[in-house]
User: Fold this.
Amino acid sequence: MLALTAVISVVMLQFDWNGVAASAEAGEIDTLLDVMIVLSSFVFAIVIVMLAYSVWRYRAKPGDESDGAPIHGNTKLEIAWTTIPTIIVLFAVGYGWVVLNDIEEPAAASDQLQVNVTAQQFAWRFDYPEEGVTSTELHVPVDRQLDLHLTALDVIHSFWVPEWRIKRDLVPAGPGGQEIDNTVLVTPDRLGTYSVVCTELCGLGHSTMRAPVIVESEDDFDQWVAAERQAAEGGDGGAGEGDGGAGGGSSDDGGAQ
Amino acid sequence: MAVALRQPGLTRGWLGFVLGIGFGFGLVVALRAISGLETFQTEQTGYPHVIVPAVTGSLGFLIGLGAFDYWFRWAAGAPTVPDDHSQHGAKTWKDYFRFNTDHKVIGVQYVVTSFIFFFIGGLIAMLMRAELAQPGTQLVDPQAFNGLFSTHAALMIFVFVIPVFAGLANYVLPLMIGAPDMAFPRLNGLSFWMLPIAGVMFVASFLAPGGAFDAGWTGYAPLSTGAPLGQSFFNLGVQFAGASSVATALNFLVTIITMRAPGMTFWRMPLLVWANFSTSLLVVAATPFIAGVQFMVLFDRILHTNFFQAAFGGDVLSYQHIFWFYSHPAVYIMMLPGFGIISEVISTHARKPIFGYRLMALALIGIVVLSYTVWAHHMFVSGMFSWLRVPMMITTSLIAVPTGIKIFSWLGTLFQAKLHLYSTAMLFSLAFIVTFLIGGISGVMLGIVPLDIHFSDTYFVVAHIHFVLFGGSVFTIFAGVYHWFPKMTGRMYDERLGRWHFWLTAVGTWGTFVPMHWIGMEGMPRRVADYSAQFGDWNLLISLFAFLLGIAQLIFLYNMVVSWRWGPRAGDNPWRAKTIEWQVSSPPPLFNFDRVPRVVGGPYEFGVPGARHAIMNGEGAEVREPEPAVAGTGAAEGRGSEP
Assistant:
């Protein structure tokens, strides 16, 4: 069993199951997955070995109508296979809890970049309140914690960048003021172009509701902000600047998609 | 014809249906005229002139069919027609199309009806896999695709897996506990006839303007509150399916508690009975939640209430809390009866007592209790109050413990056994242990919050639910159908075709659902009509295996239909099983037993010299008083010879 556990674990750990890791959080989540794979391999190996052994060893010969051994149970064994799995899952849960706390650890506010993400059928909008920029692409500097504030205008959507391993629903909140935990933290640490994928069924355009994510150096990001500002000012004479008028911004986004 | 219209039956049922529709339609037109509204309101969430007749027509059908005849007479003070049970059994196939109160007829009605919906749902799955075989749009547009996966899930969950278990149990459970019928036979008949109504509503939604309901089987608000007319058919179909399961569950509970044969103590009940007892506890307490929440959505849609519409101050997340408060226990409603089937099959075909019988029963109860405490693990990324995540992670993972106990106990049962692997039922049971284990492992992973944040709403989840629902529930359903087919029909199915069905199904299941884990982890979300090209090859492979899986089910269909008609006679107890249903003829006599059997020992006393489970008719004189109930010992020592 232990040998089989080792073989399965080693084989399974050869793959990058979750694909490219592009955030500080992704590394920890992938390690947690690896640990879970090893634990699962152990459980899987026990069951497979017991099953295969019984099927090989105890199959009835044709015509054998006798009964098996009248074993009704074994209290020690039953206690063992109640307590050992309990310990295994509690260990997994404890480790999961630690990782959860780590990936949700906020950095100092001054080091964060706040981005307000707005979703609607079937488009994304990204507002940068401090920079005064609005975009349909998510440009972010590398190695800086993002403080994403999520809202939806119509139905529920979900923000997911697979390479960041981070996902959170965007819930439409009305005047009722219900409490929704709509902030999520993530620290991209790898340059490149990725995609925001909507993962909550939101209607007929759900499968194409995507937006590009560009993780770039701090300098490139600053240049992009400057260029966007200039374009916005030149484009429509200052109207809808800053936070971006909801109506104007959204219709543009619809066209872009 | 005139006689047929007066007598309870399908003819009068259709008449009731037409009258019901006419009444509902007239009511809407009249009420709107009185209120000074336009006659027809065709807002996409409205259509009262369709919704109300859909309800009244269905009720009219049930009344016409005769489901309420007895109660109406009684309520009106008219002389009731006492039911003569000897009129009830099925002598010809036509008797299966009547309102019948015999639990064996109802059991067959249930199983056949739900398998019809299984094949419709499966056909829809084939269409989806054909569309998904290549990136881009080939066969159906995205809106039709959303309708397909929504109806696929609704059909499979509400009118296949849940009721087929109720059907199998309907047939064998009263026999197993030595009861002549269920506790409430008329209610039992009503439960069954609500089922086709639910299924037809789901399928009929394809005809609605705007297409079938397309917000997923989860129907999250506010997507569902603003969806086209088809969504209302989902809301209503769930009511009929839900009422059907609640009534059946009550029936099972009362039957199990009050109608056990003398000597059948709780600790001598077969585990299938324990499993249905636990399931019924879940159904009666949880199902009202989904009924309620679908009513609230329906009211938001047609009456403009604001339960879940954010724009008017509704509480969006509450929908999910109420929905999952049912729908997580529902996954155990879809699994526990299967656990019961596996215990029966494995014990019988391994010729051994169940290892750790008492702990097996207690594990079921443990799952029942825990399953009420885990609903929010479906909502880790939903934006709900974040403190709830860790407690739900703990309870979710702990459910793996009683489930693990069951798996280990089955494995313990195989140890030093005499395994009869020729039986298709046994093959499905052993394969179930492995596939369900995979589903259980991915389930624990999904229960760990940081992993769930990544996996949630991806194909990993699709893979997980199909491993637990197809590799889990459906494998147990096949095991149960093959195991009890000789009992229900009196005939034997073709084992060679059964093995073909098994191996193709097993290969198809693994080939279809294993790669779904991988593409999900790499970034493919669920419920998409189209996907990025990088997943193209995997999806093609998945689709090919899915078609194999679909074809394999045709073998099953052929085997069942042909064997039912022309199969060789099976004999009363082809598996040499110990439980009571095998001690009567196949199919069992109309009244089940001439005299109620006496239970004198545990249900699985294989290999125990002289042990008996029950003393059947006419054997009483030769055996002493029932032994005291001691689980886990082959205490009784009457005469040992089994036929």
About this structure: Chain B has two domains: 2-74, 100-566. Chain B is about 60% helix and 0% strand. Residues 239 and 268 of chain B are 36 Å apart (CA to CA). The longest helix of chain B spans residues 142-176.
